[in-house]
Write a structure and sequence with these properties.
5-stranded antiparallel beta sheet, alpha+beta, 3-stranded antiparallel beta sheet, single chain
Amino acid sequence: MRQKKAFTLVELLITTALVGIVMAGLYVMLASSQEAYLVGTNQVEAVQNLRLGVDRMVQDLRVAGYCPTCSNACTAPFAAVTAQSATGFTVQYDWNADYDCGTGTGINTTGSVNYLGTGTQRGENVVYAVTGTNLTRREIGLDAAPVVLASGVASATFTYLDANDVVTTTSANIRRIAIAITAQPQNQPAATQQGRASVSVQDSVRLRNRLQ
C-alpha cells in the first residue's frame, strides 16, 4: 500500500514564519491607512471648527469702532478695541449713534441698544476670550454668558499693532490685530499618537473705522 507524504516539522515552521511575515506587512499597511484616514478627518474637523469661530471674530473686528457721530473734527474717538491681552479683547461700537466726542461718553458697556434705529437690540461691547480650551464670544446686553465659538483650542495669541504696524499696548492706538490660534479635534485620541492632529489658523484684521 502506497504511503502519503506528510509535511515535516521544518516545513511547517517555515510556512508559519512566512505567513507571519505576510500578515505583519498587511497589518502595517492597514494601520498606516487607518492613521492617514484619522489624521485627515480630524484635521478637517478641527479646521472647520476653528475657521467658523475666527471668521466671526474677523467680521466683528472689521467694523470695530463704528461711530456715525465721529466726524473728522473728532480728534479723540472711543477706542475700537479695549481690554486687550494675549488671549482676548473687547470690541466697541456706537450702534445707536449717541457717542459724544466732546465728553467721551455714549458707549453702553453694560446693556443693549437700538441698532441703527431698526428696533433690533445689539450690544455695543463684544468680548472675545480664550478660556481653557474654548474660544468664546459674549455680546454684552444680549448674551447672559459667553458663547463657545470653537473648542479644542491648544494655544491662542492676539497681537495688537498701531498705524505703523508696531506692537502697541495702548487701546486707542490699535489699528490692526494679528490672530494666531492652534486647535485640536474634539475627539483627539488620548492614549495613542495614531490619528492625533492639530491645525493652526492665522489671520490679520485691519480696523476699517480706525485707519489713521
